[in-house]
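Hi R.,

Here's the chain you asked about this morning:
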Amino acid sequence: MSARSAKMPAAAGTAPTAEAARERLYSSVTPQLAADLPRSLARVFSLDDLEPRARRILPRRIFGFVEGGVETNAARDANRRAFAAWTLRPRVLTNTVDRSLRTGLFGRDYAAPFGIAPMGATSLIAFECERVLAEAAGAANIPFILSGAALMPLEAILKSNPDAWFQAYIPGDRSRIGPLVDRVARAGYRTLVVTADVPVGGNRENNARNGFMLPLRPGPGLAWDGITHPRWLVGNMLRTLLRRGMPHFENVDAARGAPLISAHAERSFGRRDALCWDDIAWIRDRWPGTLVLKGILAPEDAAQAARTGIDGVIVSNHGGRQLDGAMPALAAVADVRAASGSMTVTMDSGIRRGTDVLKALGLGAAFVFLGRPFLYAAAIGGREGVQHAIALLSLEIDRNMAMLGCTRLNELGPAHLVPACRPQDDSRTDERLQA
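And the predicted structure, written out as C-alpha cells:
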C-alpha cells in the first residue's frame, strides 16, 4: 500500500499516531482516502468509479476502443459474472495484525499480488501513457507489461522502469520473430510475454460502429471527437504532436511500424494464424530470460506449455476482446493450475475488486493482472491517478485479508471459496478445487 493511501487527515490541532491513523483507515468505507488528491480523483473510492469519469474525458470512439469487447460483449461481461459465482468463507478471531500483501513471482518480490496488463495504443488515452503506467508500477513495486502495440519505444520504457516486462504479438514467421526477440533482449528486458490467443483479430463491431480503426483515419468525425473533448485534445493529442511528433507503433517488429494517424497506412502483424508450438519452442531456445504465454484457457495447452519449458502462463480470454463466447478466465484457473505442474499460473480478465483478486488466488492463480481500470485512471489523473488506483486495490485486498482471517496470501485456498449457487451434483467442482 502506498504512503499516500494510508495518509489520513488529522482532527484539528492533533497529530495522529501511526496506530491511530491505521485504525481510522479501516473505520468506514475508504474514509477520506483521497483527501490530498486533485478534485478529479477525490471522489474515486473504487476502480469501478474510474470508468464513468474516463468516459466524460475521452472521445467517444477512443473510449469505445478501450471499453468494448467483441460482437455481443458476451465474453467481456462473463468475466465479471464469473467472480459473482463464488462467495468467500471467512474465519474469525484470528490475529491478522502482521498480514502482508507481498508476493513472489519469477524470483522477484512484489508489494502486492497484482500487476498492470499489456494494453495497446495506450498513449491514445493519456500523454505518454506507457511511461505513466510504467513509472507508477515501478514506484508501487508491482509488475508492468509493455504491449507490443505500444506507441512508445520499448527501450524508452525500460529507462522509466528497469523491471518492466515486454509482451509481443508474434507472427508465424521466424524471419520476423528472431529480430524482435533479439531487440527485446538487447534492450535489457528479462521477461517476455508471448500472446497466444490472437491468431486473427477479434470482430470488434463496436469499433466499426464508432468509426474507430488503427491507424486513425483523419476526417470530420475524428476532428469533431477531438474538438468536443478539449481536455483530451489539448492535454494529450496536441501535447503529443508538439513534443514528440507523430506517434508510431514502435514495437510490433524490430523496426518502427505505422504512424498513429494516416489516411492509408496499415499495421502489419504478419500471419499470426501460422504461429504454432514449434515456433514457441524455437523462441524458448532463443530467449534467455523468463518466458510467459498469455491467453491460455485449456488445461491441455497449459500442459503443452510446461513441456515446452515455458516459465509461466497468463490465463486470459483477452479481456473479452477476442473470441466472443469464450469461457471466463476465472473459470479456467483451477483446471489450468491442475495441469501446469510446477509452472507458474497467473490470470487476467475482469478483476475490479480486492475480493476478485482473493478469489483468483484461492482458485489457484499465483498472481493477477488488470488492464482497463489503470488505463481509465491514467486518463483521469495521469501517474497520480494510476498510483491512486493501485492504492485503492491494495487497501481492499489488505482489508479483506483481515476479514477472511489471513495473514499471508498463500494461505488462500479452496476452503475459503463456496459456489454462490451450489448445483445438486458438485463433486467435480470439489475434486477440481482440491487438486
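The domain at 54-205+267-434 is CATH 3.20.20.70 (TIM Barrel).

Let me know if you need anything else.
M.
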